[in-house]
Specification:
two-stranded antiparallel ribbon, about 90 residues, elongated, 7 strands, mainly beta, five-stranded antiparallel sheet
Length: about 90
């Protein structure tokens, strides 16, 4: 099991990919796959089978995973932006 620079509950900024610049809180960390789920980022649609909760079935929108190397803690990101003299990117 490897250690990551982020953990569940941390606020992070996406630093690479299509969702670059977005902020969110980490919901889950998958250590084996080196991926994290960030709240409100990379929303994907899942088709749900008929069940007691969804008698007709449903299309549910939920977060997709992002590689851990594409996220950075928000406080580190803001400190780096302040040091450079730039304005921090807000979600």
């Amino acid at each position: 099991m490897s250690r990551f620079h982020v953990k569940k509950g941390d606020e992070v900024v996406i630093i690479a990919g299509a969702e670059k610049g977005k902020r969110g809180k980490i919901i889950n960390v998958a250590t084996g796959k080196q991926r994290v789920l960030v709240e409100g980022v990379r929303m994907i649609k899942r088709h749900m089978r008929k069940s007691q909760q969804n008698p007709q079935g449903a299309i549910v929108e939920r977060e997709g995973s992002i590689h851990v190397s594409n996220v950075m803690k928000a406080d580190v990101f803001d400190a780096r932006a302040a040091k450079r003299g730039g304005t921090p990117v807000t979600g």
